[in-house]
From TrEMBL:
Keywords: Endonuclease, Hydrolase, Nuclease. GO terms for molecular function: endonuclease activity. It holds the Pfam family GIY-YIG. SMART domains: GIYc (SM00465). This is Endonuclease. It comes from Kordia algicida OT-1. It comes from the Bacteria.
Amino acid sequence: MKKPFVYFLTNKNNTVIYIGVTSNLMKRIYQHKTKSYKGFTSKYNCDKLVYFEEFQSINEAIIREKQLKSGNRKRKEELINKENPEWNDLSEGWLFYFD
């Protein structure tokens, strides 16, 4: 999955929504799940992938990330509910392997 992505993470109670951008979604989700970096997601236990979008360029992904971050929580919830109404962890079952 080495393409640009914008993604949403939440915690087990779905009370926090974190929006990020990456050029390697699988690796980045692994980093969140293992709390490799101290910051917002480790502090609020955001490790459940509930939404993502794929892009052709990292610049497009960054523009979209900024757009999504400027929106209110209701708009973010609507995006998640449209694609993932149960708010399941979309990375469930991923095998994390990196060379």
